[in-house]
Every structure is written in structure tokens, then in C-alpha cells.
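User: Please fill in residues for this 156-position structure.
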């Protein structure tokens, strides 16, 4: 019988969340990688290419939102070992357009432990310039992490 990830400690939970990220069908559309090294912190590295451009030749805002939301979400969910969180609100600020290259989204948990958690995230381009930032609120759902195949399976 397999032990639930939460009983194996925080590092096992982080690796399971990384598998969950990779298993989401939406992430097949992006060249991105999630890393969780410690509680309350998440990092997503991804590449901006022309396939995510808007008509004026820079990354569309949906890319900013997705990566900022994901980084903040996983920072918050790193503190929650039993339930999948849901984004209930997200405020986004665009600070600079980006056309190409490697971009890093970092998420940091800010507050909350029980039902609602708050996390912030930043996007930084290859030159180290901030290109966007956001703050999200995340609520515990009724969905157990242990019931999600991507969380429990090493094959994702």
C-alpha cells in the first residue's frame, strides 16, 4: 500500500506538487518547469516564444496571468498537504512587455493557514527586470490532493 504524500514529509509534498503541475494538460502548451524548494516558495521558469504573442508582437497578458497565478498558487499550496487550493481572486500588474527569452515567476506565501491563503508573485525577464507582479487569494477546496493522479503518480 502506498503512503499518502503528506505522511512522507514536506519534500515529498513538494515533489508531488511539481508532478501535479506537469500533469495539467494546459502545461503541455508551455515550455515551463515548477520548482518548490521550501515551504511558501515556488519558482516557475519558462520561455517566451512567438506562439504566445498578441498582434503587436509581445507576450500576451494571459501568459503573465498564468505564470503569476501558478507561482503564487503553488507557493500557497506548499503549505497545504491535504487539499487542492482554488484561486478566488487575483490582482495583476503589467510593468514591462516581453518579446522573447527565459522568464522566471516566483511566488511567496504572505498570510493565512486555515481556509484562505494569500500569496504574491513576480515575473522577471532575462535582464533581471520585473515585467509583472500579482497577488492572489486561494481557498481550500473539497478536492483531496491524494485523489489527483498527477499528485500521487510518479509517471506524470
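Assistant: Residues filled in for all 156 positions:
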Amino acid at each position: 500500500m502506498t503512503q499518502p504524500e503528506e505522511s512522507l514529509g514536506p519534500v515529498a509534498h513538494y515533489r508531488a506538487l511539481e508532478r501535479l503541475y506537469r500533469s495539467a494538460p494546459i502545461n503541455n502548451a508551455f515550455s515551463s518547469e515548477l520548482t518548490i524548494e521550501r515551504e511558501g516558495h515556488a519558482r516557475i521558469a519558462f520561455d517566451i516564444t512567438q506562439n504566445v504573442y498578441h498582434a503587436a508582437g509581445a507576450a500576451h497578458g494571459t501568459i503573465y496571468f498564468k505564470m503569476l497565478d501558478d507561482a503564487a498558487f503553488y507557493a500557497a499550496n506548499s503549505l497545504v498537504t491535504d487539499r487542492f487550493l482554488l484561486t478566488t481572486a487575483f490582482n495583476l500588474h503589467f510593468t514591462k512587455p516581453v518579446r522573447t527569452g527565459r522568464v522566471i515567476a516566483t511566488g511567496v506565501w504572505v498570510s493565512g493557514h486555515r481556509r484562505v491563503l494569500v500569496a504574491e508573485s513576480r515575473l522577471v525577464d532575462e535582464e533581471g527586470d520585473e515585467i509583472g507582479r500579482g497577488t492572489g487569494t486561494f481557498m481550500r477546496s473539497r478536492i483531496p490532493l491524494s485523489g489527483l493522479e498527477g499528485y500521487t503518480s510518479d509517471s506524470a
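For context: The chain has one domain: 5-152.
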